[in-house]
Amino acid sequence: MAAGDLCESRPTALALSALAARAQLGDRIALEELLRQLQHPLGDHIRGIVRDNDLAADVLQDALVIICRRLGTLRQTEWARAWAYRVATREALRAVKRADRDRGEPLQDMSTIPYTSAEVSDIGEELLAELPAKLAVLPVGAQTVLRLHYLQSLTQQEVAEALEIPIGTVKSRLAYGLACLRRAWIP
Question: What is the model's pLDDT at position 43?
């Protein structure tokens, strides 16, 4: 398997959990492998939030340093993937807020946008293929939940854990985001 092929595969929660446990015990090789496996998916996630490649690279570096330094505080390594996304999301949102503050533009707040509690159904293949480009029209909260669930393959529970929000909020943001996307695609 080529080195490029490793970057394309998505690390599983179980594999990351095992690496995190070994890294907590002082295994430097496991720590390096954990960070290597997290780098690509977290980078994609951060780029989706900040929408600037240079800023995303800086935020990714900050997030990986935080993950490395605070890995010992992670009590349940089975949540390593969700925890890493939480760190990356926090850092990305902080960077967006700083950039918006510098430009004088407020960050769009999900709490002011009404939504219907429609049942979330499976997303269609054509919608999934076009999802990254279409997310830009959504509020940051809905974008982040859709990106984590559909593009990064986190479960709804992992998304809730990563964003530190209730599972009901994850479900409502999924429903709201999908409804907005469907309205945009269906004339």
Answer: 94
Report the C-alpha gap between 11 and 16 in whole angstroms: 7
With 0.70 as the threshold, say if the pTM is over it.
no
Is 140:49 a contact under the CB 8 Å cutoff? yes
- Report the domain count for the chain: 2
Residue 70 has pLDDT above 60, yes or no: yes
Q: Domain boundary at 48, 80, 106, which?
A: 106
Which segment of 44-53, 68-77, 109-118 scores lowest on mean pLDDT? 109-118
AA letter at 170: V
